[in-house]
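Fill in residues.
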């Protein structure tokens, strides 16, 4: 082994949870190393998740705008086409720039970047197998932070080859747009990737086991959302399970069955995306040897200070229970190292937003109407459609609505869902309002710039607090 290096913190995993924790730890004056095995920083999010998917969503959206909407803005285009290799290259460039950027941030903040796969060998030691396969280093630390993230959940009977039967990773790197695509799983990732290829010309069918897409979404918004996606050309096959998938002569042959039982049917496509979820990734991490407890889904169990049952070992992000989102992992990471530094790190999970980056986007924070009722709240709701919002009308992008859920007696905001253009940006008004314990009336009485899409939030708050918006 190379000489042992003593640190205050060794972070295992350089995704949004791990790299942000490492930078914050250094900013708090702790000595820190971050171990990452994939050869680049940024984790799932930057390399094969949030960022490349948003690059492809943007390119395909712009293509769609030019194809379907430019005419209505009075803009004429000649023959329109796309160069898919160039689309992919733009995405790769964005990813490369951002991952290199984190290396720069590590240098600036004096975080030691250790390339290789880390394994716990004692409560204070991580052994790192170098990427060259021959060298290894042992790092010693007062505290160890596990941030090894998640991996794609496989679907039994449908083996992923990343060319024809792909996970999201393969779907982000296709060399050509498939003629026909089947997406297994109607969650955020499936809908986003399905939208990308549908916009670029693929015939896309989403097969979903449940009777609803994105079950966590407000039911009323979800129904409108699904209709909107159908209008765009996505097809849905609900309440259906895929029991088998195989590649035959370059085509994917799938066997489907009704989820509740019944006769099997066959379906064929050029590319099948398996996007039924993600599971924690702790392969080779040495959890068992140290007796670190996990739950029945393989997630590392932590207390509300991110501590595992081994007091010097902490865990965050996709590896632990909670929403599997990059910004949640980042918040976990910051709070965990604050706690290690003797401060009062804390994450308010009630205000973590989730966003589906289709067009229109759907963003939500807090409780949906259904969740609020199930928790025993007496609720009132207020809605406002983007059809009645002047900015949305001016730019010709009117699909969607804002829906606010508040406590009937106190008017306290409980949740907000926005389906509409830029919903992912606008939702932060709801996030802040919820964080500050605002009432619907607080939002309704807050002056909003005109003409903006955000005025729809104020109008929905007026509808919630006073029963009537102004413009509808
Ligand atoms: P990860 O990002 O998974 O990072 C963990 C890192 O640890 C990896 O780089 C891995 O190589 C490394 N590692 C694992 N084991 C070891 C080891 N033993 N030694 C060294 N290194 C190790 N979330 C959003 O919030 N917004 C989105 O728009 C969004 N879009 C997504 C789109 C797709 C297609 C996918 C797949 C995911 C998306 N997500 C999105 C989810 C998001 O990527 C994750 O929630 C987030 O990356 C979790 O961060 P993390 O730091 O916990 O783990």
């Amino acid at each position: 082994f190379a000489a042992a290096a003593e640190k205050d913190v060794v972070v295992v995993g350089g995704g949004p949870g791990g790299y942000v924790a490492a930078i914050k730890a250094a900013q708090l004056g702790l000595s820190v190393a971050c171990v990452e095995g994939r050869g680049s920083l940024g984790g799932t999010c930057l390399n094969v998740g949030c960022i490349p998917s948003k690059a492809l969503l943007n390119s395909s959206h712009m293509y769609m705008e030019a194809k379907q909407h430019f005419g209505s803005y009075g803009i004429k285009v000649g023959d329109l086409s796309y160069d898919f290799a160039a689309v992919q290259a733009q995405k790769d460039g964005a990813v490369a720039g951002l991952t290199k950027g984190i290396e720069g941030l590590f240098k600036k903040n004096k975080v030691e970047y250790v390339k290789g796969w880390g394994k716990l060998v004692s409560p204070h030691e991580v052994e790192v197998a170098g990427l060259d396969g021959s060298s290894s280093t042992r790092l010693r630390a007062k505290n160890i932070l596990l941030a090894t993230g998640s991996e794609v959940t496989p679907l039994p009977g449908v083996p992923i080859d990343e060319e024809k039967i792909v996970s999201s990773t393969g779907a982000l790197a296709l060399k050509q747009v498939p003629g026909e695509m089947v997406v297994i799983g109607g969650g955020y990732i499936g809908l986003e990737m399905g939208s990308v290829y549908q916009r670029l010309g693929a015939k896309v069918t989403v097969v979903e086991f449940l009777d609803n897409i994105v079950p966590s979404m407000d039911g009323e918004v979800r129904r409108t959302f699904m209709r909107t996606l159908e209008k765009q050309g996505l097809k849905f096959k609900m309440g259906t399970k895929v029991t088998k998938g195989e590649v035959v002569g370059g085509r994917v042959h799938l066997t489907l069955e009704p989820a509740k039982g019944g006769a099997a049917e066959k379906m064929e496509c050029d590319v099948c995306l398996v996007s039924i979820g993600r599971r924690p990734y702790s392969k080779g991490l040495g959890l068992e040897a140290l007796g670190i407890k996990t739950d029945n889904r393989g997630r590392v169990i932590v207390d509300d200070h991110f501590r595992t049952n081994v007091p010097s070992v902490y865990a965050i992000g996709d590896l632990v229970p909670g929403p599997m989102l990059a910004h949640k992992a980042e918040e976990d990471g910051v709070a965990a190292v604050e706690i290690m530094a003797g401060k009062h790190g804390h994450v308010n999970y009630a205000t973590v937003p989730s966003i589906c980056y289709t067009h229109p986007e759907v963003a939500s924070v807090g409780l949906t109407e259904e969740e609020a009722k199930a928790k025993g709240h007496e609720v009132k709701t207020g809605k406002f459609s983007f059809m009645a919002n002047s900015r949305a009308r001016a730019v010709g992008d009117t699909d969607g609505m804002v829906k606010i859920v508040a406590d009937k007696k106190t008017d306290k905001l409980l949740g907000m869902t926005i389906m509409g253009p830029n919903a992912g940006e606008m939702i932060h008004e709801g996030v802040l309002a919820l964080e500050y314990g605002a009432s619907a009336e607080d939002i309704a009485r807050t002056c909003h710039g005109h003409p903006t899409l955000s005025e729809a939030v104020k109008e929905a708050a007026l509808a919630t607090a006073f029963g009537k918006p102004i413009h509808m």
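The CA atoms of residues 251 and 270 lie 5 Å apart.
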